[in-house]
Every structure is written in C-alpha cells, then in structure tokens.
Amino acid sequence: MTTTTTTSHTTSASGATAHEHAPRLALAELLPDFYRAMVRLETAAAKDVDPTLYHLIKLRASQVNRCAFCIDMHAKDALAEGETIERIVQLSAWEESRHFYTERELAALALTEAVTVLTDGFVPDEVYARAAAHFDETELARVIAAITTINAWNRIGVTTRMTPGHYTPRSA
What we know:
Distance between the termini: 22 Å
Helix content: 55-70%
Number of helices: 8
CATH architecture of the domain at 49-160: Up-down Bundle
Strand content: under 5%
Structural class: mainly alpha
Low-confidence stretches: 1-11
CATH class of the domain at 49-160: Mainly Alpha
C-alpha cells in the first residue's frame, strides 16, 4: 500500500469523474510485521478452499463492508480466474439471484453475511446448520477462516481508505 496521491481523471459522456482520494496511511509500510502476518493468515485461510467459493466469500464480505479497494481487487481476481461477470454483478443481490449459484455457494454466502454483519450478536443456528449441511467440519472451518480473514482485510482497507481502481490481478 502506498500513500501516493493520484490525480488522474477519466472522462465519461457526462464529463470528468470525481477526484480520487488518497489513502490515509500506509499500514503495510508502517507495520510490516503485522502486514506480513496478515498475508500469512490469508495464505492459511485460502489453503484447500475452492478458489471460486473463496472469491465469492471475499467479494461478498467486501460488498457488505463497503470496502471499495477489496471489491475492486476480488472482482478482478475472480474474473482473471474465470468467474463470470454475470455472477459477480448478481452477487450483491444473491438472495434474489439464487439461480446463479450452487446450494453450497448459497450456504457459504449466507454464512458470510451472518459472520460479517453480526447484527444480532451471533450467527443464527439455521444459517450455521445450513452451511454445516453443505460442508464437512474441516471445510466449514476453512470457510469460517476465509470469512474471518477477509473481514480483517476489509477493516484495514476501509479504515485506511485504500484507493480502488489500481489493482492488477495476478495471472491465473
């Protein structure tokens, strides 16, 4: 993460876009040990999780948390790895667009939202039971780890105002 301010503008039919904001601080540079630990956590969380499912989890949690940087990153990564634009676009309304996703993905998305929002202070039993019906215990633990990790990244991205739009996905 860098603290450089970009002043480039793109134009649309209606004119120039708004100015791009600069990040608040460069957490990776200020706390490199913490950042490296987060990367190791991400690597551990991603291990043996279906990449398609992992992208959906990361993208949906990022949408819920309104982390524009992470939405940009995970949408680009998902597309680079073969995800369809249609499924990415419909993800913000996945409950109304259920037919785009498998039952297993739907269970993971419901769990992602329950863990991310925690509006009732807990994950509802029915949401957990539905996920447990689609994943064995080890898989479920991996899904929970993936949800937890992206939520931590989202909090970093939102708090430090990481700027979306400049991420380039790694090659698939």
